[in-house]
């Protein structure tokens, strides 16, 4: 298939230029460990100036308000403060014309489970690590996630009725299933697939546009030619890691931005 020229791409995105864009979500949107840190952001939020919201805004000429934050759950979007900041929904105003949301992973302990299971054995004995590594607890957390996602998407709809709502799911840290893979990987994959299915269902119920980044990311797992996520590693003090264990890489953020921009080229602003 012939690729669009730069001019045609710019023309397709022209209706979005100058529109107000709010980015909501967790670390898979904020981009912890990818330098540089977004100007004025709280360090604990892990908000990168090269995360997918910033890349989208730069390419489409959008006016970005990025409130994505590491560790965020649906509650942090809806009603809980985090790192001294108000709930993320406060950024969504009636004049907002585009909203992206990546959320739900922390509600079920998706990435925390994988990190806890990959930690050195002495660390896995610590109470916090043992809780995160609990398969049964993560499985139970899946039970109410679709309804929580529906509340998030519904709240965005109420606060910005004319906004295009794009739900961006989670990049995979693992590639396609492998014969004989460890039980940890099988359970992580079950969590990731279940979250993706529930996210798609909630987006459909809310009339939102799902941008599926998880499926193409399976071909870009750690160890591939262009990995979109990093596997577990132990950060070394004083040595820049340019990423966070079991999280998106800069290449992953760029890939997500490209997928969202491709969707935007097919959508006109609602207003």
Description:
- It is a single chain.
- This protein is an alpha/beta fold.
- It has 13 helices and 5 strands.
- The chain has helices at 6-13, 27-30, 52-60, 74-78, 105-108, 110-118, 121-124, 127-132, 135-141, 145-159, 183-206, 214-217, 250-264, and strands at residues 20-25, 63-66, 98-102, 164-168, 209-211.
- Strands 2-1-3-4-5 form a 5-stranded parallel beta sheet, sandwiched between helices.
- Helix 3 crosses helix 13 (250-264), helix 6 runs antiparallel to helix 11 (183-206) and helix 10 packs parallel to helix 11.
- The longest helix has 24 residues, at 183-206.
- The radius of gyration is 18 Å and the shape is globular.
- It starts with 5 loop residues before the first helix and ends in a 7-residue tail after the last helix.
């Amino acid at each position: 298939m012939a690729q669009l020229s730069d001019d045609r791409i710019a023309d397709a995105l022209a209706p979005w230029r100058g529109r107000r864009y709010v980015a909501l979500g967790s670390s898979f949107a904020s981009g912890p460990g990818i330098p540089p840190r977004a100007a004025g952001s709280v360090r604990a939020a892990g908000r990168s100036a090269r995360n997918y919201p910033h890349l989208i805004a730069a390419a489409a000429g959008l006016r970005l308000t990025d409130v994505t934050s590491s560790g965020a759950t649906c509650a942090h979007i809806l009603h809980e403060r985090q790192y001294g900041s108000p709930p993320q929904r406060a950024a969504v105003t009636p004049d907002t014309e585009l909203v992206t949301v990546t959320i739900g992973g922390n509600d079920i302990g998706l990435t925390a489970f994988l990190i806890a299971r990959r930690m050195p054995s002495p660390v896995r004995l610590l109470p916090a690590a043992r809780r995160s590594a609990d398969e049964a607890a993560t499985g139970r957390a899946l039970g109410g996630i679709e309804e929580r996602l529906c509340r998030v998407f519904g709240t965005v709809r109420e606060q910005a009725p004319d906004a295009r709502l794009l739900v961006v799911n989670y990049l995979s840290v693992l590639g396609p299933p492998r014969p004989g893979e460890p039980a940890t990987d099988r359970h992580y994959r079950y969590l990731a697939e279940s979250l993706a299915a529930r996210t798609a269902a909630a987006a459909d119920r809310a009339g939102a546009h799902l941008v599926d980044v998880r499926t193409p990311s399976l071909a870009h797992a750690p160890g591939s030619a262009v990995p979109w996520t990093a596997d577990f590693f132990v950060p070394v003090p004083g040595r820049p890691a340019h990423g966070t264990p079991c999280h998106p890489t800069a290449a992953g953020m760029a890939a997500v931005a490209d997928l969202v921009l491709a969707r935007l080229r097919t959508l006109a602003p609602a207003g």
